[in-house]
Design brief:
Elements: E1 3-7, H1 11-26, E2 32-37, H2 48-51, E3 56-57, H3 62-66, H4 73-82, H5 85-95, E4 99-101, E5 106-109, H6 114-125, E6 130-133, E7 145-148, H7 157-161, E8 166-172, E9 175-178, E10 190-191, E11 194-196, E12 200-202, H8 204-212, E13 220-225, H9 229-238, H10 244-248, H11 254-260, H12 272-276, E14 280-289, E15 295-300, E16 317-319, H13 333-353
Parallel strand pairs: 1-2, 1-7, 2-6, 7-16
Antiparallel strand pairs: 3-5, 4-5, 8-15, 9-12, 9-14, 10-11, 11-12, 13-14
Helix pairs in contact: 1-6, 1-13, 4-13
Bound molecules: flavin-adenine dinucleotide.
Length: 355
């Protein structure tokens, strides 16, 4: 009997076990699968999507889908062409997880519950896969195939101990600390997908910026779109006697307008320069707010795996999921990466073990 080890029982590791079992049934073969995890299986899926599990994103053009990954875009284009969003949605429906698409194209389970997704994934492997609660720190022996799916929450020492090169790990999809102290008083105030925090700024727009700039040295300037110049001009014209600040408050929270506009002048007397200055809010990011980080940039170098996730340098080793140097924006992209990596890897493992 062929023995397969999956190190890491997160979304990518468990989905890989599910797909291996599916192929095993199809080809009437019986590999022995053991999942090793130092914590509870699938504990990392519980907080996803604010406990609703944003499991994918409704984009069926694989090139467009891959553009949502600041690291891994080129590699993923071929991956998504072989296992994309509709494959994942179909597979989850087979597991009993029906899905729906939100207006912003994010895909969620109809149950709106990550605990439900966890339960359905566990049901699929129940009594068919061995589980060992242990932290693996050294290369495993006595297995015909080993799959590393450890994520990046702990530094991926294991992959390094196997001899793989690790690209520098940096927080991504996180809030940013800012230098301008006057905005800290705005804690909780939000505008244009940005929310002020006790140390800086957060929210979807900032997450995306933090991801794009993951390797940029601090401090750096960030420009947040504030008010469309033409729309502001039109409102000022409609309300010439109102205070400039009052008109600006029709577009952004009054507390923010109070900080940005020091003058008491009327709308009719506002200069073009003053209007232009409100097009963007420019702030200085001094570091990441690591409490909020959702994924990590960096990880196992993609040069060292083939397009089926098989190691080019270690025999019978595959590496999948967030532990790789792949990370996407918020929107379900990171979990879609887990499903795609896992499904392709599972197929390849079966093909190599049962030629
Ligand atoms: C708060 C939050 C919300 C998120 N929401 C979303 C979302 O809605 N949609 C989305 O697409 N993405 C989301 N993400 C990102 C997503 O959760 C990750 O991309 C995904 O969990 C990565 O899966 P993985 O299986 O590769 O790694 P992980 O989920 O990190 O799982 C790795 C597992 O391996 C175990 N492990 C690690 N090292 C060892 C070892 N040496 N030996 C044994 N076991 C080990 C860990 O305990 C863990 O169980 C969110 C992330 C966070 C933090």
């Amino acid at each position: 009997m062929k023995k397969i080890a999956i190190i890491g029982g997160g979304p990518s590791g468990i989905f890989c076990a599910i797909k291996i079992l599916e192929f095993a049934e199809k080809f009437d073969i019986k590999p022995e699968i053991t999942v090793f995890d130092n914590k509870n299986i699938l504990h990392t899926i519980l907080p996803t999507g604010n406990s609703r599990c944003n499991l994918s994103y409704s984009e069926y053009d694989n090139m467009e889908l891959a553009k949502n990954f600041p690291r891994g875009e080129k590699f993923l284009y071929s991956v998504f062409s072989r296992y994309g969003v509709s494959d994942a949605v179909n597979d989850f429906e087979k597991l009993g997880v029906e899905t729906y698409i939100q207006d912003d194209l994010r895909i969620f389970p109809k149950a709106d519950s990550s605990a439900f997704v966890k339960q359905k994934m566990l049901e699929a492997i129940y009594n068919k896969v061995k589980f060992e609660r242990i932290e693996i720190t050294e290369p495993l022996k006595a297995f015909d195939a080993v799959i590393i799916a450890t994520g990046l929450k702990n530094y991926p020492k294991l992959a390094e101990n196997y001899g793989h090169k690790i690209n520098e790990i940096k927080p991504a999809l996180c809030g940013l600390k800012i230098m301008e102290k006057e905005f800290i008083t705005l804690k909780g105030v939000s505008f244009n997908s940005v929310i002020f925090t006790e140390i800086g700024v957060s929210g979807p727009f900032i997450f995306k910026l933090s991801s794009i700039n993951a390797y940029k040295s601090f401090p750096y300037q960030i420009k947040i779109p504030l008010i469309n110049r033409n729309e502001l001009k039109a409102k000022l014209k409609e309300n010439p006697k109102k205070q400039f600040k009052t008109v600006v408050s029709m577009f952004i929270p009054a507390s923010l307008a109070n900080i940005l506009i020091k003058t008491e002048k009327q709308a009719a007397n506002v200069s073009n320069k003053e209007i232009e200055e409100l097009e963007f809010l420019t702030l200085t990011a001094t570091s990441t707010d690591n409490k909020g980080e959702i994924v990590h940039a960096g990880g196992v170098s993609l040069d060292e795996i083939d397009n089926n996730f098989k190691s080019k340098i270690v025999k019978n080793l595959w590496i999948i999921g967030e532990v790789l140097n792949i990370d996407g924006f918020t929107g379900g992209f990171n979990l879609q990466n887990c499903w795609s990596d896992a499904a392709i890897c599972a197929k390849d493992v079966i093909k190599k073990l049962y030629p």
